[in-house]
Amino acid sequence: MVFPDTPLGVRVELLLDATWVDITADVFTQSPITITRGRPDEGARTDASTCSFVLDNTSGRYSPRNPRSDLFGLLGRNTPVRVSVQPDPGGPRLVRFVGEVPAWPVRWGTPHDVTVSVQAAGILRRLGQGAAPLHSPMRREFSHPSRTSIVAYWPLEDGGAATEFASAFPSAPPMRTTVAGVRPAAYSAYAASDALPTLGTGSLTGVVPRYPDTGEVSLRLFVAIPETPPETEIVLCTLSGTGLISRWTIALRTDNRLSLYGRMTGGQELVRVVGGGDFLGGRRLNLGLELTEGGLATYRMYYVDLDRYTLTGGGPMPSWQGNVVGGVVGRITHVTVGGGASGEVAVGHVALANRHSAYADTGSAMIGWQGENAHARIQRLAREEQIPLAYRGSATATPTRIGAQSVATLLDLVQDAADADEGRFYEPRDRLGLAFRTRATHYTQPPMLTLDYAAREVVAPLEPVDDDQTVRNDITVQRSGGSSARAVRETGPLSVQAPPDGIGRYAEQITANLATDEQCPPVAWWKLHRGTWDAPRYPAVTVALHEAPHLAGPAAAVDAGHRIALTHSPPWLPPERVELLVEGYTETLGVRTWEITFGCSAGGPWLVATTDDPEYATAGPDDCTLAAPLDRDATTCDVTTTSGPAWPLSSRHPDLYPVAVRIGGEQLAITAVHTAAGGRRRLTLARAVNGITLPHQAGAPVQLARPALAAL
């Protein structure tokens, strides 16, 4: 026997001392367990999943600070909890929720009525509570614990009122002002960084903590050079140390080229490279200097032009090098930036390492991961923050490339990438972590659950809402920091025309972190396609699995982003199949009851043309109309195609037919297509596919019953 003839087999467990402990016996059965997941509708962001239930705490077992409890020392804030069911005693156990219990509120009326009302939540609650912005991509990269060879690092991302510039390493000394005139947070045009200082007439010096001498010294720093050359040569950076050459100075010449000087304590020059590299006016560079001790010491200066560097192709790295007598390197003790009338030259991310390999694989971070695929960014951020991520993507779809990673909270960065792709960011139900599925995985997916209204598989009330809440017929998509594109529905029932020809203008402007301006038009048209889908909304669809136990398996498999369908609607609703996309759900679990209410959005816009789908592989003409009136009894008609290819002839393409089409409120099937006079097509029809036969006027559109659209 299975549910509901037997109990649902609800189990509640806590993860205590690395072991899942069953506490189901203490859960009050008169208060059903309630779980929510996903988002309430397509316009909202995903909330943390929640799970509520009530525990019997008469013994004080669930009072975390009670030393008489057998769970004392094990129970605390954010204790993991898992809820599962087993509708078939011989079948698998189905996990319905995994989350954390942030608090254990004890309530009592009498000594015999003591409870704890548990409000568990998914990881989004904790990640979003008091979350600080993540550091910039450059700072995260240079200060990563794995880069042990970087011995000193000053990001210089301090605020506008800063009087000194903190090291990125705990307890390391800051860079302090040696000459007044530096302007903190004056330069914000570097996408991989927070705002940086311009040097003005000042300079900053940092003390380098003592580090192991490896015979190698490697400097890196960001420099933004103005278009106008300086009137006199200006110092960008100086390394001071214990070697024979006590000062290594990188300077910007009056011709906007770089120079390198190596001077002894008394001022004698042992190294002089004048005019190295290209004209650098208006460039943003990651500038490097490598020193290597040996029988003959070597020096190498180089730069990466960040505006010419790409995520996939890298970029040029001009360099020049030379030799000098041994013993000149020593240990670097101080790093100074600025020193003269440097004006609007901006600097930042000054790092010193004792290995040349210290900066390997930092190129992507130097450009803020500009051009990264949306799913790759989400995966990388989750990996960097050590958060488990469940990912679902399409192997054949072109990934969405996105713009630079900004300084924001983890959740905002993940949501930013998900929004650019129009994918789905949520929490998995079987583990504590995050989940992401790309936009392409929502295209023309098979229905996970089909509900027959006539068979009472849907709990009343089923209340479609035919309103304008999701209507958007004038869409402008703005790329962050870039250009924009606009898409407008000019004709049709949801067009910008005034009623009765349309619905009026519903305009929306959306800013998306896309990689290029060329991505804006297709995104705008896709959003317009979804915003002008002419179908009612079904905000809530409820199934009672204790009344329809044969649906327990399929319904339990439904998750956010899945497609479900409703068939055999009541006679007061249109007769066609209702296509829905699940945005989230609420479920209640009892001893012998199990009910799930799915929050849904229109699924029709996602049923796009795919070549491998038996139903949606067919594309009809763009503009096909009846050439003459069609009465209720006619089984043939001539059609005129004014846009796009005509219907293929059945003599040449017999496998294409039948094809479901719609004329007005009637659904028909094209069973054959022949040539008619005047270049028209003559269609042989099967009528009343949806149980309705209607007369139709000449000029009535003949459309695919489920309009298909090329996937973006």
Pick out its properties.
disordered C terminus; flat; 712 residues; 7 helices; mainly beta; Phage tail protein beta-alpha-beta fold; nine-stranded mixed β-sheet
Give a short synopsis of this structure:
By secondary structure, this protein is mainly beta.
Let me know the average pLDDT: 93
Distance between the termini: 48 Å
| Helical residues, percent | under 10%
CATH architecture of the largest domain: Sandwich
What can be said about the biggest beta sheet? 9 strands, mixed
Low-confidence stretches: 707-712
CATH fold annotation of the largest domain: Jelly Rolls
Give the C-alpha Rg: 33 Å
State which percent range the strand residues make up. Answer: 35-45%
How does the overall form come out from the CA principal axes? flat
Write down the domain tally. Answer: 5
How many helical elements? Answer: 7
Helix/strand structural class = mainly beta
CATH class of the largest domain: Mainly Beta
Instruction: Tell me how many strands there are.
Output: 41
Which helices and strands appear, and what pairs or packs with what?
Elements: E1 11-16, E2 19-22, E3 33-38, E4 50-56, E5 79-85, E6 94-101, E7 106-108, E8 114-121, H1 123-127, H2 137-142, E9 150-154, E10 164-165, E11 175-179, E12 183-187, E13 196-200, E14 203-207, E15 216-224, E16 234-241, E17 247-252, E18 258-263, E19 269-276, E20 284-292, E21 296-305, E22 319-325, E23 332-338, E24 343-353, H3 363-366, H4 374-384, E25 389-392, H5 410-421, E26 424-426, E27 434-437, E28 449-452, E29 474-479, E30 484-488, E31 507-512, H6 520-531, E32 541-544, H7 552-557, E33 563-567, E34 578-589, E35 594-602, E36 623-626, E37 636-643, E38 659-663, E39 666-675, E40 681-686, E41 703-704
Parallel strand pairs: 25-27, 28-33, 29-31
Antiparallel strand pairs: 1-2, 1-5, 3-4, 3-34, 4-8, 5-6, 7-8, 9-24, 10-11, 11-14, 12-13, 13-24, 14-23, 15-20, 15-24, 16-17, 16-23, 17-18, 18-19, 20-21, 21-22, 26-27, 29-30, 32-35, 33-34, 34-35, 36-37, 37-40, 38-39, 38-41, 39-40
Helix pairs in contact: 4-5
